[in-house]
Amino acid sequence: MAAMKYAITLVILAAGLTLATGCGSDADSTQQNTGDAGQSDTTQTDTNQPDTNQQDAGGDAALAPPWDASAPLGGDRPARVILPNAYDRTQSWPLVVLLHGYTATGPLQDAYFGLSRRGDERGFITVLPNGTQDGAGNRFWNATDACCNFGGSSVDDVQYLSDLLAEAKERLAVDADRVYFMGHSNGGFMSYRMACELGSEIAAIASLAGSAFDDAQDCAENGQVGVLQIHGDADETVLYDGGQFAGNAYPGAREVAERWAARNGCDAQAQTGEAADLDKDVDGAESDIEQWGGCEADRRVELWSIRGGGHIPSLSDDFTDRVLDFLFAHSR
């Protein structure tokens, strides 16, 4: 059943992107896509709904000053904040910013990963921002030249997310040494962009089916960040070995991991970890785990390659906890 639901999602989403971008007739569409298949607002299977008992920035929960539930983070681009039930301002809390894929929203991405519902048990704050809408009505992040500002918008998402993080630190009891970004597809691209631009404030990022600048020199030298790159080698949207959108190239998953390993002063060669079962639709422990150790300030880099995995894997029950384990092993 899970496989059928995800297959339907991919088929409908591919059709929608073809109509929106006009690239469906391109003979080399897997290399020349102009959109990326983050979850569709109308087709996402909502298997992991956020816990409705959690305190929400848009709700009526009585939160300690200076938090004001009537004024969520982000001003005219409000971002949903989900606090653990035990939240109080006498201690500091890790912060995870979740960035959605192209055409999706923060809450839909949260439903896919089941992130915020883990906030109580693991004790962290979740922030769910939304990208702006392009001419076709699809939400996107202006991350790199390849992904995913296909309409030529002037929106500065680096500034928006930087301001959002600064506001969160001012108004919430955020542990400034434990700030993390996590994203899927276009959100993965944007997570890498924030690691470049705001690396001195971010402990680690995780990207599923995302990539980075094609030219490594476009990534600003603003600190070392722990990096987890997760990618299916059968992804036909954001290709495992790299490709391009609308003539703008992006690097492959291994190249991105190796760049960050070099940047973080890690060992030149990765070590092979125990294979993992990350995708329910692929039999057995299908995912190869590679780890770069010996990194400066313990800013580790890992590459999880899902053999036979597509752009929207049917995530295993412990997938998100594995990702959180990696993220929370890092602090500034």
At CATH level 3, the topology is Rossmann fold
Separation of the first and last Cα atoms = 42 Å
- Total count of strands: 14
Calculate Rg over CA atoms. 19 Å
Strand order of the largest sheet: 1-2-4-3-7-8-9-14-13-12
Q: Any idea what the CATH superfamily is called?
A: Alpha/Beta hydrolase fold, catalytic domain
Write the H/E string, N to C. Answer: HHEEEHHEEEHEHEEEEHEEEH
Low-confidence stretches: 1-65
Mean pLDDT: 84
- Assign the CATH architecture: 3-Layer(aba) Sandwich
How many separate domains make up the residues?
A: 1
Major beta sheet summary: 10 strands, mixed
CATH class: Alpha Beta
Q: What is the percent of helical residues?
A: 25-40%
Estimated share of beta-strand residues: 15-25%
Number of helices: 8
**Envelope shape:** globular
The secondary structure category is alpha/beta
Protein name: Polyhydroxybutyrate depolymerase
Pfam families: Esterase_PHB
Signal peptide: 1-20
InterPro entries: AB_hydrolase_fold (IPR029058), Esterase_phb (IPR010126), Plant_Biomass_Hydrol_Est (IPR050955)
